């Protein structure tokens, strides 16, 4: 296999840090191997002079005039003795069925590999090149060209005779020729020409740049990228030529096609061959020993570079120095580069060695990443392209990555990667756990252990829990919360926690964890006891989840001391499990807690705790006076006498006023408002609520000698009592605050009432008029009378069978119809007739008569 050398650094850079050196190394784009088997034996006795590549096989020509057909692995399948001297070129058609061979002694042979029929000719001068029409196997394209001192085209006519025509001569030896579709490109001492076989026109002449180089020592390299793109490499220059169609308006006497050079640039070394790789180029360089740009270690080795052509330059993608056999003895003309278009294989041919370069596949990419210790990238690449990876396994790469992380001391990352790498392999999991135990890193792997469908042996989990219990109570508690109880033997862990609690009996973390363990073990009473002792927030969740209400009947006070709101809500939500009577009994010695419970009970339902309403009066008075009055208003089971007694004892005026009014003693209630509260607005509001004339009289009488009260009455009683009554009773000369404003307000209220009445009157009149007009329009509409209409009295057709006769019909607005003679006698009002059907029901508008007389 060919040795690949990466481009070296200058000696002054050798001191660069090792990590930076690794990062700067880029991954090779190609991989190399020697073409061995039969080729090795051939080149030991002979030397390669040329080779051509087909997708199915290879054809190798030697200096001793032999041609070997090889398979892709280099095994010889056929051998041809062509000449005793050097084979200059071999050409194959696209099908691989015909071959053209030319040699240094002037022999040219074109024959079928399976028929042996063809062309055999000897010339009196060396023939350097030969090229078959790409579709030579087809009967219509039996054409090929040869080149020595001139370029000859051979065509077979319908008589199966070969006709020869000269395409070009007079510019020295033809050194290279390439045929693609209808275009033939060849190189001589002057430059490169392109000939269009379909139009029989030469379409361009590309001159070589460096004429100082000998054409025989630095031959021209030609390569067709596609049917219209030719790549030329000569000396150190590269040109990419595009063959384009000429516009018809510009043709005149010019060829139908022309060539445009789309890219041209100079390289550092001499070109021995080139080939396309997608939109890039693969260049084979010959490096001269005296080059100033090459280190001693790499001098004279051929280089294979991948470059990206640009309009006026190129960008180097990769560069590899190749160690081929006898490279020290080779010249630029001794190297050739051939490629297989189907598989992107590149063959570097030298006299004593043939190296195959191919694009690196995903396995090669992973190999390189592993070699550079880029395990994470290697693992990602293997996961993404697992269908295309043949030599690597994702799990093995992952294990190598974990080992690497452990060696680096990055235990947390190594443990995290175990989830992805180990998957559901229990044996690998347990091995890793024991390895982490050995290095003292069980904590690192604990949070990543499988706990779903795949579960390890309970001893593994218990081992990790014991490790945490020894060193980290918080971490132990976290694992107990996160891990399902089925992973380990619960009793074993409970016993271990109990042993630690003997040393530290008040440790809240251990107590909480022990309660959780008891919960997993369904020993809820033990767990509840610990939660209550710790006043833990999860106690209510535990009670609800496991229906432990029977266990808390004697612990209600403890629950309410911990969290009154949650406790009361829980008790009220579960009255069917713990009765109200039981709760009241438990809270009898804690009246402040009893009040909270009964208050929330009353808020939910005013009737449920009615038997305790009498007791609640005292509780509200003692602990929650602001809610006493709302309670008295909403409760219908509260004994009013008892409530009044308590309120009078505590001098609760507002509550006493409410109770007096509710008991019917409104005059006493009003008196308390005026005498004790001295709040005229509240007194007026009270009088408005009761709407009692005697109360208004009492209020006026009480207020008549108090100017502030008179002002309040003047401002507020206008809609309930005639203000004149109050004004007449005011003593002459009494000074009343804001009297003018009060009188203005009275007048304004009066005006507002007048305006409201007038507005209502207008609306009523407008509505009446609108309805009257609507009724009038309705009654003025015509009524359809036809053959189907009948008399409501005799039930005969309303119209006579003979319309020529005179008849008289009465039609009422109610749509009832009668023959004139069937109508009863007129009513009491002269000239007005009513429908006798409707008049029995009502007498009013809409039943008047419409007469139709003919």
TrEMBL record:
Bias kind Acidic residues: ranges: 14-25
Q: Which GO terms describe its cellular component?
A: clathrin-coated vesicle; cytosol; early endosome membrane; Golgi apparatus; HOPS complex; late endosome membrane; lysosomal membrane
Main localisation: cytoplasm
Q: Which GO terms describe its biological process?
A: cellular response to starvation; endosomal vesicle fusion; macroautophagy; protein targeting to vacuole
Entry keyword Membrane: yes
The entry lists its GO molecular-function terms as:
zinc ion binding
Read off the Gene3D superfamilies from this record: Tetratricopeptide repeat domain, YVTN repeat-like/Quinoprotein amine dehydrogenase
Q: Which residues form the Vps41 beta-propeller domain?
A: 30-359
Q: Where in the cell is it found?
A: Cytoplasm, Cytosol; Early endosome membrane; Endosome membrane; Late endosome membrane
**Which keywords fit this entry according to its UniProt record?**
Autophagy, Cytoplasm, Cytoplasmic vesicle, Endosome, Golgi apparatus, Lysosome, Membrane, Metal-binding, Protein transport, Transport, Zinc, Zinc-finger
Q: How does it sit in the membrane?
A: Peripheral membrane protein
Name where the CHCR repeats lie.
568-712
Write down the Pfam families for this protein, in alphabetical order: Beta-prop_Vps41, TPR_Vps41, zf-RING_Vps41
Q: Which domain of life is it from?
A: Eukaryota
Positions of the Vps41 C-terminal RING finger domain: 789-840
Q: Where is the composition biased (Basic and acidic residues)?
A: 1-13
Sequence segments annotated as region (Disordered): 1-29
The record describes the protein's role as:
Plays a role in vesicle-mediated protein trafficking to lysosomal compartments including the endocytic membrane transport pathways.
Query: PANTHER family given for it?
Result: VACUOLAR PROTEIN SORTING VPS41 (PTHR12616), VACUOLAR PROTEIN SORTING-ASSOCIATED PROTEIN 41 HOMOLOG (PTHR12616:SF1)
Tell me its family.
Belongs to the VPS41 family.
Q: What is this protein called?
A: Vacuolar protein sorting-associated protein 41 homolog
Organism source for this protein? Oncorhynchus kisutch
Gene, per the UniProt record: VPS41
